[in-house]
Give the backbone structure.
Amino acid sequence: MSTQHKHKHAVAKAILFLGVVFGGLGAYIVHFTKDIRVGPLTTKGPIAAEQANLIYLSLGIVLAVLVPTILLLYFFAWKYRESNNKAVYKPGAHHGKAFVMTMWIFPTLVMLVLAFILVPVTRRLDPRKPVNNGTAPITIQVVALRWKWLFLYPEQQIATVNSVTIPKDQPVTFELTADETPMSSFWIPNLGGMLYAMTGHVNRLNLMATAIGDYSGSSAEINGAGFAGMRFTANVTSKQDFGKWVNQVQYKTNPLDDTAYANLRKPSEAAPVTTYSTYAPDLYNTIIMKYMGDMSGMDMSSMNHEGHTK
Amino acid sequence: MNEQALTHHERLEAAANDRVKFGFWIYLMTDLLMFSVLFACYAVLHGNHVGSPAGRELFSLPLALKETLILLTSSFTCGIAMVAARRGNKNMTLFWFAITFILGLLFLKFELTEFRQFILEGHTLKTNAFLSSFFVLVGTHGLHITSGLLWMGTTMIFVMKRGLNSALVRKLSLLSLFWHFLDIVWIFIFTIVYLGAFA
Amino acid sequence: MRHFWLGKLDSHALPHAWFTIGGTAVFLLAALITVIIITRMKRWKWLWNEWLTSVDPKKIGIMYFIVGGVMLLRGGLDALMMWLQQALGASNMPGIGGEAAHGYLSSEHFQQIFTAHGNIMVFFVAMAFIFGLINYIVPLQIGARDLASPFMNTLGFWLYVGGVLMVNMFFMFGGEYAATGWLAIAPLSGKVFSPGVGVDYWIWSLQISGVGSTLGALNFILTILKMRAPGMTLSKMPLFTWGSLFSMLMAVTVFPLLTATLFLSFFDRYLGTHFFTMTAGGDPMMYTNLIWMWGHPEVYILMLPAFGVFSEVVATFSRKPIASYKSNVIGMAGVSFMALSVWLHHFFTMGASTDVNAFFGLMTLIVAIPTAVLFFTWIATMRGGMIRFETPMLWFLGFVAIFAVGGLSGLILAFPPADFQLHNSLFLVAHFHFNVIGGVLFGIFCGINYWFSKFTGFKLNQRIGRQAFWCWILGFCLSFIPMLILGLMGATRRLDHYDASTGWQPFFVLMLIGGIVIAIGTVLQLVQIFASVIQRHRLYDATGDPWDGRSLEWGTTSPPPSYNFTVIPTVTSFDTFWEAKKNHALPGPAYEDIVIPKNTAAGIYIALFAFLLGFGFVWEMNWLAVVSIIGIIVVLITRGYNEHSEYILTAAEVEKNEEKRAELHKKRLEQHKAALHEEEMGLVDFMRYMLKLGMNYIRQKRRKRT
């Protein structure tokens, strides 16, 4: 067999191999993603939808540029193979100014296009900005604990653990903080992107749901042993059902008092969903202030193994 | 043939000297970057004294000024010592480095006095973020001074034993670079930490 | 009293879980076997004099490869363990194994594994191979005999080994590694949330090897800037050297930041300071900033030399000079410069203002421009070339596709709103594996296949090399494409278990299968090396220039003498060696006096003390730390004031040595000619050979007995 033949044979074999691999892989992926319900691409609200569109758009633009470039590289690799007598060997080929200019200007232009998309979209999708649909947003305060999520409803004066109920088509402002917990990340993929929950800080995350259903949420940032189990459900209900649900929670007397909160602060995994009919109005502020300024008077001994400074 | 080999060897040594000096400059840059992290931390954290006294209430400007003057003088005497070393005057070199050494010790003594006083008053590096960043920034500089003194002392002993040979003069010139560098870092500490507290 | 001498160390710290007992046993067994073999071969003195205390960058390079290779297997085992756990980790599957509620690992153990995996792969594998390549190749490429400071080089290597020991020490003492993720983000890594010794091991393994990296980088910069052959101006420097220079410039800029940050983190844990604590005014977000100011450039420190390798390989195997050399160099410069100003894109989600996020997003886009230019120079180089598909070229072609997907996913992540949805998801994890495996690791494999004959004197087996390559490609696709998909399905990283209803499990299973294929590929690479050793006569590199190369390293023998060149070549153009070869104008033999640095064990001693220093701090044995510091100072003084660290090899001695080498070459050439008829070994031939070897050994033993 001549080298030329052998080479063709090898290339054919490689293409066949890659074809089988990617064909099989593609079929497998299509089969198992048929009915996914979680993830940034299964959008249930305007923020998630815009973010998914952005992912598709940037993917599309970059693919449009990248695929031809890479194919060109492989085409040249094949065309100028040593055994191809038809291709002309030009070792002294000189690359003029025009070529060098194109080489630099082309990617610069592509990045300019992307930049013109990036800046406005970053501003428009600022998580601090309330979703504007004519309705006033409802505020929900979120406290990351080890390893559970506490939700406070300041307007309704109720609280829940590991489950948050929100009305459909009403903007929600999540005010994220944490207590005695390392940095955690609050994420409901179906509704929109994540933001960190940190002690002594409040990060505002504005989302909205447009479809009734149960969506899973989690901490996306590692924060200790129970991290993988730090999941919660976001229940989206109709506005009437939301009112009913609030009444139910308020009716079933179970206050979030100091003892109950002290219990919540203890590390635990897979805490059951709990609802509280009421809580101390200044609880959220106390949690934040605990990490700012003077702390004499605070009992931090439960968290500090080393003994705390005075 | 022999002479040729010698010049060849001399050429190599000159190149090596050049490299060592250049390398030491790069090292000083890395050290400066480490200090810049400590300065950045101090800049971020100096307001976080959480109920304990702030710098204004703790620091004594006259003491800091005294430390600054001592260190500046030591930089000057170090310069004189280097002039002597380049001229090959062994005794003068040793004399001026000895003065520099004593000034360095004096600086350390004042710094430790300040630290000791703070600690006795209950302001330790565990108290709050401001004091942590203060102690670590100023203490790191103090550690550098200490290692500089160790280096100076050792080199002086070797100068006494071996005389001012080219390798030792090279070491001394690096040492003086190091010493001036610490002086500059201290000026920053004096300005940002001490003067800054009263600004 | 007991606490004074032993600190926190007590019997609880000794191995008692299956993995610590296993790890300790493997370690001790390996050490025992090595000791027995060396003792029986009576090679201790040889090992100490020729290798361990050597200051020859070529030998240090090889030692980097060996330790880095072992750590690659160690980190790969971690990866397999994680894949297995995640494949079994669906909530509807019962836990197997003692503490594990899901899969076979407890959550904490799983978290320790991925932390160790990240640290080992970046610090102790990729860094080691990159430093190994630079050590071996850069002095040859620039026509230098040695590095600027041979002592600093051996010290850097042994500090790296100290870090390797430290990262594995928890098997024997303590039983736990950091469970914090590879960057040990505060305040999770603080004493409050991580009271054990795991994070301390993390701090000291990175600290010790990090100082070694800084020293190494400083040394390489000096070497490249000050020790090039006469005539080699910067604009005539080979591209691998350029990549290494940029990489090392970045390293001296950011490694000091790491050193300082690690010290502050250590003070927080050891002295009770409040830099990164949540309380008493500490600021954990500052840690995130500082560690990523180092962490992001770190990836590019690994990537730039790999870019250099690819440029060399494309030029050589296309038989053309690189197209637009200037653009290639400016491209690399641009990448390294921009890489210093994008660190914040690792935490868009921490809540910085919109404009700050947008700024760092734009910076990240800009990095893509010089990277694209590098690709264009490679494409233009291949055009009009005469391309040979030897294994180095295959690794390059594999790199192109995989790295492109990595870049593509990276550009999506550069958009802050998109990042909000993809950050900390498996999409992100897949993204950097596309870049780090596809870019850095493939670059390393490419470089090793390319320069192997320079290291050993014989080429690598191509047949098994090709099979290993395809295994890697197949395994990579099977394990990391599903990972991208999983991220888009909302799977976060670092999960040891997950709800079965998410539908993720089929993809985790696929990833495990891919991991096994990669493992097979790795085994094949080992087989490739062994098969090449067996056929070393057939694969003998007779000319020192097996690929028809272009740069100076191909102008000396394979392997080169300890002084690299008998006479330092004079360089007149970018392709001096290539042109001299084509014009048959290679310089004839000539000899001169050569200054050679003496071997030294000072590096070993300092690294040993540095290791003990770290160990002392991990276990709060303050006396040990103090003794170690004194030890380091004493060794430094003895070494620093030693004025007899070099000797001169006279021209006559060089000539004699060269004659000896020529004779050896003649012998090897005859063996080579005799072996030329052999077919290149395949996998089956290799197995048959090994089987025969084993049978012969048994037969011999029996014969001896009877």
Chain B has a mean pLDDT of 93.
